Amino acid sequence: MTPNAEETTPDGYGRKPVTELRTAAGPTGGSPQHELCAEELPPDLNQAILEATKQVAAILKRHEHDFALAGSVAVYAHGGTGNLQHDADFCIRPEDAEAVAATLEQAGLTVYAPPEDWLLKAKCLGQDIDLIFELAHQPVTPELLGRAVDLPVDSVRMPVLAPTDLMRALLAAFSEHHCDFGAVLPIARQLREMVDWEAVRAECGDAPMPAAFLYLLERLEVIAPRGGDR
After folding, report:
1. Phi and psi for 106 in degrees, rounded to 5?
2. What are the phi and psi torsion angles at 153 (to 5°)?
3. Could you tell me the pTM of the whole model?
4. pLDDT tens-digit profile of 114-147?
């Protein structure tokens, strides 16, 4: 994964963002058995994201990489609505990032490093894939991946982040510059019976934005007040 000097791009990562999935006959020499042609994708964006999710998960499983599905597709796997948000997110350990990237490149996908230093990005079937190795401002750990639940995602089983870990990550992302309660509220409603809310409260501490969101959930009777029963 270390780029040659002549291949290194100005960002120093040796990767170039592209908008198309490279085919098996392209520079990577990957096998075509894992890929679908872009024209075969269903017109529905949600289904397209699911197809890309299944493709990436199948490749990672086949090569025995540790990972867990995150984001809106993980919510869908836990029984949430199929209104997916832009991309598919996979949690991987920081020490596995280079090996995971190499596996995906060998399968014909393009992988590149964005300006953010906590993830890699890939393209599969025209859809964005985020390979996240830092979640909720903390490195992805074996313990986090070990709590993942094996669930089917449109017929392909894969490890999916536990609901409590999903909610922790969503609340930890709140800040003065990014605080979209409207996007997270439906997810909290959908997962409320599966989340350990006391653990979420303990994790978030006194951070003002997560505390405000938890208070909103209490007022809407989505969750019980601290120490109470809903």
Report:
1. -65, -25
2. -120, 100
3. 0.79
4. 999 999 999 999 999 999 999 988 999 999 999 9
